[in-house]
Amino acid sequence: MFVKDSSVGEMIVSIVYVDDIVITRVDFNEINKLKDSLATEFEIKDLESLKYFLGMEVARSKKGIVVSQRKYILDLLKETVMMGCRPAETPIDPKKNMEVKRKVI
To answer: Where is the Reverse transcriptase Ty1/copia-type domain positioned along the sequence (predicted)?
Structure first.
């Protein structure tokens, strides 16, 4: 993660993982300046708004940002042939007394 303050007093955040980079900032002009600077040194592909990063799905709304691993979970269920399985509310009866009975030896 790289954080830099700009000349206009705003912060730009870059997250780098191997060959993936996420850039975030309020001012799009500063983002474009950084992308142009990177493009002079590296071959880059701009995917516009972030949808997936490191297997996580990213969704934006007026309320904020939601990060989930729904796709990963669905792929895992398919791989383990468990797509048709029904979820259990709890793995054990919540009324079951889990007290341990001990005996003195």
So the answer is: 1-92
State how far the Cα of 9 lies from the Cα of 12, in Å rounded to an integer.
10
* β-pair partners for 11: 5
pLDDT (tens digit per residue) in 48-83: 888 888 888 999 888 888 899 988 889 999 999 998
Query: How far is C-alpha 9 from the chain's CA centre?
Result: 27
Q: What pLDDT score was predicted for residue 104? A: 67
Give the β-pairing of 11-17 and 20-24: antiparallel
Q: How many helices (H) and strands (E) does the chain have?
A: 2, 6
Q: Which of 29, 68, 30 is nearest to 13 (CA)?
A: 30
CA gap 77, 69 in Å, rounded: 12
pLDDT at 105: 63
